[in-house]
Design goal:
Strand order of the largest sheet: 1-2-3-4-5-6-7-8-9-10-11-12-13-14
Number of domains: 1
Helix content: 10-25%
CATH superfamily: monomeric porin ompg
Mean pLDDT: 79
Oligomer: single chain
Radius of gyration: 22 Å
Strand content: over 45%
CATH class: Mainly Beta
């Protein structure tokens, strides 16, 4: 279950009571049904992770690979040759009620010669849990080369936003759950992200620190107050002179400070230039936990086994119009559904400048 292991964070302490209730039911009836305890313990671990750790703002998926780096890196606001609008819709477990879903809308563009502005808004739903957020971004771009033809640029970006979480327990009473109050709880707080990007010819790298502010008001535990996540990505664009083909290998490492958990994305994209300023691309991303954090050895191994995903993707750039599709599939044994995770990205570029960078850099051009 991708949301349960990848992008869930602390929300409300009473979730632990809910978890204990369902764990008790599983452990009571499992022997009677002669169920295999190995996958049951895997499910229990996932449930515990989910109810203990709610969302922490905009989740980090593989959608940044679909011409959408600004979604996770504030320093990319206004970095491109064109202003951009990107709309994404992500859905898990098609046909199932209350399945996880995510919608994002981002707009960014250059203001003046060296500044960029952007807005990110999102709505994230996962069963009884919902979160909405909106961020505003300012970025500054320092050009070290003599002009924009030979790119050598360092960019800084700062995002500030407001997020609201909601836990709807109104239907729990009807289900006979004695451990919850049957109310709807809302929490809102302010947070900031900071990052930088560096482009030198065909090489690029990004670093972003997310959730810089500790919000003690979320609840009384230290675990929920520190939601900081650090992202480091880098890659290079490779192509022969006058060749219509282009290759882009890249990496993205994520580190969650409070959990001491590290995951790595290994990505490869292949571009093919078409006629009339059109481009098509194919790619694949593989995400794996390389460090499950400060837990005991058995739990650490279990988390690493659960966090394993592969995400093939494809897209087309039809001039100013963009379209991309991403499919994510779990590779681990313990899953709640055999269905994958589907995501569609729609984009539109506007306000493009006449002068373009002379580099193999799709994120800028």
């Amino acid at each position: 279950m991708e949301k349960n292991t990848e992008d869930t964070l602390p929300y409300l302490d009473k979730r632990l009571n809910i978890t204990n209730y369902y764990i008790l039911q599983i452990m009571t009836y499992a022997p009677k049904l002669k169920l295999n305890f190995k996958p049951i313990f895997g499910i229990v671990a996932l449930l515990t992770t989910y109810f203990s750790f709610a969302q922490e703002g905009l989740p980090v998926y593989s959608d940044y690979l679909t011409d959408n780096y600004y979604l996770i890196h504030p320093s990319m606001a206004g970095a491109s040759n064109c202003s951009q609008i990107r709309l994404t819709a992500r859905r898990s477990w098609l046909g199932q009620t209350d399945a996880p879903s995510l919608q994002t809308l981002s707009i960014n563009g250059r203001v003046g010669r060296s500044s960029g502005l952007g807005v990110n808004a999102f709505a994230d739903t996962n069963g009884f849990h919902k979160q909405n957020g909106i961020y505003g971004t300012y970025a500054h771009h320092l050009l070290f080369s003599r002009d924009e033809v030979d790119i050598n640029m360092l960019s800084f970006g700062l995002s500030a936003g407001v997020l609201q979480y909601q836990l709807d327990e109104t239907s729990f009473i009807a289900a006979g759950d004695p451990l919850v109050g049957g109310s709807t709880t809302n929490q809102a707080y302010f947070n900031m992200d900071f990052g930088f990007s560096y482009f030198y010819r065909d090489f690029f790298t990004h670093f972003t620190a997310k959730n810089l502010i500790e919000n003690q008001g979320l609840n009384e535990t230290d675990l929920t107050s520190n939601l900081r996540r650090f992202l480091l990505s880098m890659g290079v664009n490779i192509s022969k002179f006058n060749s219509p083909w282009q290759f882009e290998p890249s990496l993205l490492a994520q580190y969650r400070q409070q959990l001491q958990q590290t995951t790595v994305d290994m990505n490869i994209k292949v571009y093919r230039k078409l006629n009339n300023n059109r481009t098509a691309y194919l790619g694949v991303s593989y995400r794996r936990a390389v460090d499950a954090g400060s837990t005991d050895d058995s739990a650490s191994l279990l988390v690493q086994e659960q966090l394993s995903y592969v995400s093939p993707l494809f897209g087309v750039n039809l001039g100013k119009l963009k379209f991309a599709y991403t499919y994510t599939k779990q590779l681990n044994e313990v899953v709640f559904s055999s269905d994958g995770f589907h995501q569609i990205t729609l984009g539109y570029d506007f306000g493009c400048r006449k002068q373009r960078y002379h580099c193999n850099c799709p994120a800028l051009n």
